[in-house]
Design brief:
The protein is α/β, with parallel strands linked by helices. It has 15 helices and 13 strands. Helix content is 50%, strand content 13%. Helix 2 links the parallel strand 3 and strand 4. The radius of gyration is 21 Å and the shape is globular. The N and C termini lie far apart (50 Å).
């Protein structure tokens, strides 16, 4: 049984008491209100996962509200989503992030020197939701809308270390086994085959383990989309406007929070939808890995003063391939032992494509090293004092 502790505190699933966890979070939420943020795309409304998530959330009667930032192309899609969530009995708000009223408010901010319209995607949607959710809650839990094996323990486990005063953590990262027991397949490809060997390659490439690399390596699953944080932190994070959001959030926690106030929690087994690798560098897992690399390079330059050049990227690629192939051998052995399906050729082919992305995205970063970071809410509030309240009024009006 794994009881290993990292540099950050790890809360293992050993013999947790489900009823006790729910009661403690419910009692604590009287003094420390909590909410869930669940970003979603319109197409996810057709998935079986979302129906099960609604059932699980309905058992979380301690929640102050559920905020659902939505990317919808028109009012018809927005209305369809609102109707779908009538089954959700917990107070909730559907936030049409690219709707006309929200876009108009963000347009007005351009006169204050903040151009938020240039950001699109999950990063901006989460940023908008954090803005309104942090008004009325102390603790915020975030998870995606594609969790297949969802129950009420997922938000409860995420929020427990935040609201339980005896622990009083500020940030909690969820981790879990990316294995489909039904299909007998090991997933988590971006972490297993890209990020983990890439971080190891950075150590050899730089010549030492930088502080931020060590911080990331102390997490079991640093790019999981499931985490919880306090509302004051939510107001003080710069978010990347792309797939680098998870690494970007980790960088903000590294900068702003003491290690003793950060933890990670075992969420057990559960399955997500699985992205395709993508034919080009701007689709699927290929785009995701490219965005992660750019965010990682930016943070390492800012925090650890590393020097990035075309030559260092070539060396990084060579080292990455070596460690990724070592990993494939280990995952093959693990899969064989556990009677899981494992295709070494497919995984090797994926590593080859990811390695090319190190060069492509790395050189792209060198051409434009600043990146796309959404200003934190504290700066936005200083530009317009009541911006969050105005945004909340819009969302409430849209939900009437």
């Amino acid at each position: 049984m794994d009881i290993r502790q990292e540099e950050i505190t790890t809360l293992h699933e050993l013999c947790t008491d489900k009823k006790k966890l729910l009661k403690i979070v419910a009692d604590a939420s009287n003094e420390r209100p909590v909410s869930v943020i669940m970003p979603m795309l319109y197409k996810e409304i057709r998935s079986d996962a979302l129906k099960n998530i609604v059932k699980g959330l309905n058992k979380c009667t301690y929640l102050n509200e559920v905020v659902i930032p939505l990317a919808a192309k028109d009012e018809k899609e927005f209305i369809h989503v609102k109707r779908f969530f009538r089954e959700l009995k917990i107070p909730h708000l559907i936030m049409w992030c690219n709707g006309p009223k929200t876009e108009k408010l963000l347009t007005e901010l351009k006169s204050e020197g903040l151009n938020l319209l240039k950001y699109r995607g999950k990063g901006r949607d989460v940023w908008l939701a954090m803005g309104i959710a942090s008004i009325r809650s102390y603790g915020l839990a975030l998870h995606d809308a594609d969790v297949l094996h969802y129950d009420e323990l997922i938000p409860t486990k995420l929020l427990y270390p935040i609201v339980e005063t005896e622990l009083d953590f500020k940030f909690n990262k969820g981790y879990y086994a990316r294995v489909s027991l039904d299909k007998r397949i090991m997933y988590g490809r971006v972490f297993r085959l890209f990020l983990y060997p890439l971080l190891r390659a950075f150590i050899d490439n730089i010549g030492y383990e930088s502080n931020f690399v060590r911080f990331l390596r102390s997490f079991r699953y640093p790019i999981s989309g499931e985490f919880a944080l306090t509302s004051d932190l939510a107001r003080d994070v710069d978010l990347p406007g792309d797939w680098g959001i998870e690494i970007g959030i980790m960088a903000e926690m590294y900068r702003n929070v003491a290690l003793k106030s950060i933890c990670q929690t075992d969420l057990g087994f559960y399955d997500h939808k699985h992205q395709k690798v993508g034919k080009g560098s701007d689709k699927g897992l290929m785009k995701m890995t490219g965005d992660i690399l750019k965010t990682l390079l930016r943070v390492l330059i800012e925090e650890d003063n590393i020097v990035v050049s075309k030559e260092s990227l070539i060396a990084l690629r060579v080292l990455y391939v070596r460690y990724a192939r070592d990993g494939i051998r280990k995952y093959h052995s693990d899969s064989h032992f556990n009677n899981l399906k494992y295709d070494r050729h497919v995984e090797e082919s994926m590593v080859e494509r990811f390695s090319q992305q190190i060069l492509n995205s790395g050189i792209s970063y060198l051409r434009k090293p600043v990146g796309t970071r959404i200003p934190d809410w504290l700066r936005t509030i200083s530009a317009r004092k009541k911006i969050r309240e105005q945004l909340l009024d819009i969302v409430i009006s849209d939900n009437e």
